[in-house]
Amino acid sequence: MASKLYDSTQLDLYRNRSKFKWVVLGISIVISIGSIYYTNILVEQIKSREEKLIALYANTLEYFANQENNADLNFIFDEIILSNKSIPVVMADELGNPLEYKNISAADHATTRKERNRILLKEIREMEEEHEPLLVTLRRDGSITGYQFIYYKNSMLLRQLTYYPLTQLFVIGIFGMIAFLVFNYSKAAEQNKVWVGLAKETAHQLGTPLSSLMAWVEYLKSDEKLKDMDMIVELEKDVERLNMITSRFSNIGSEPILESMNVYDLIEETLSYLKRRISTRVEFTLVCFPNRELEANINKSLFEWVIENLCKNAVDAMGGEGKIHIKVLKANEGHVLIDITDTGKGMTKAIMQKIFQPGYTTKKRGWGLGLTLVKRIIENYHKGKIFVKRSDVNRGTTFRISLRS
């Protein structure tokens, strides 16, 4: 009862964390949209202000240029237009030849007049695409004597603000990715603690009855009439297996010791134990290519656990009747492949994507932890890979394990 309550508490915790993750995502999106919207308002306000400012410059220029007492138009340009410190501006004649400019650093660094004019003409073309030039009409005695044009483009501040929303999205995206990775890491770390704690507690609980069973086996073996009976021999094997299982659970969380071992022999030993403890209507076959001498870096007790689990799942999928074919292959780049094929009910693609997830099971009774532990043993402890190579509904499934040799 306590374990069910604990398991339920953990599930509620992860479910609440998942909801919290979506809440954080929603808040981030709202903040992003609000920030971008507010930035766009600022951009439009500054843009409008700059347009009005340039228009004011143009009107002022036109006014003073047409006053009879003002013969020095350049002085007016210096006092009004050039007082601007941020908006790039070029004043040109009616033929488009630059007369004066302001806030164009490239032109300031030009070494010759020809180079400066080339830079200013290029700026004028860019300014025309961004803003329509302002017309300054020159008059003398009520008659139009000529025209001048004021070209301009957005200030550096305005251009930076224009691209600022993209920068915001990038920063928020990076932050969201980091938060997601941290959340997943913390969730995985907490799950690992749960697994380790549960495993060690299981090993502790098994210790007492196992010690008692070992004592009873020794007592039965002391009887001359019973010690050579097959029942006692198999019972001793079961006790040894229980002792190994207890050792497995107690060592979870510790770094396992890997040794180079013969893969074929190890699987054959595991199958020999299983055959006498499952349905006799299940047929096992084991082959090895190119020979039986293939070795891989393996932790014996943990790897036997993997083979047992996959075979028992296969027996369940076949309803206790069918064939299990295991093939050991030498692969490239120092790897050994193990294919475990059954003739069971198979899986749909939707199920294949979930079978290694903690708590997922298609059985009426089960915690959905077997394949999760198998994946952890192969990938975390053996640095290998395990996946569903193929599965056809009502035809069977093939699991593939890849180990380093």
From TrEMBL:
Keywords: ATP-binding, Kinase, Membrane, Nucleotide-binding, Phosphoprotein, Transferase, Transmembrane, Transmembrane helix, Two-component regulatory system. Residues 201-405 form the Histidine kinase domain. The keyword Transit peptide does not apply. Its EC number is 2.7.13.3. InterPro entries: HATPase_C_sf, HATPase_dom, His_kinase_dom, Sig_transdc_His_kin-like_C. The chain crosses the membrane at residues 20-43, 161-183. It catalyses: ATP + protein L-histidine = ADP + protein N-phospho-L-histidine. It holds the Pfam family HATPase_c. PANTHER family: PEROXIDE STRESS-ACTIVATED HISTIDINE KINASE MAK3, SENSOR HISTIDINE KINASE. This is histidine kinase. It comes from Reichenbachiella carrageenanivorans.
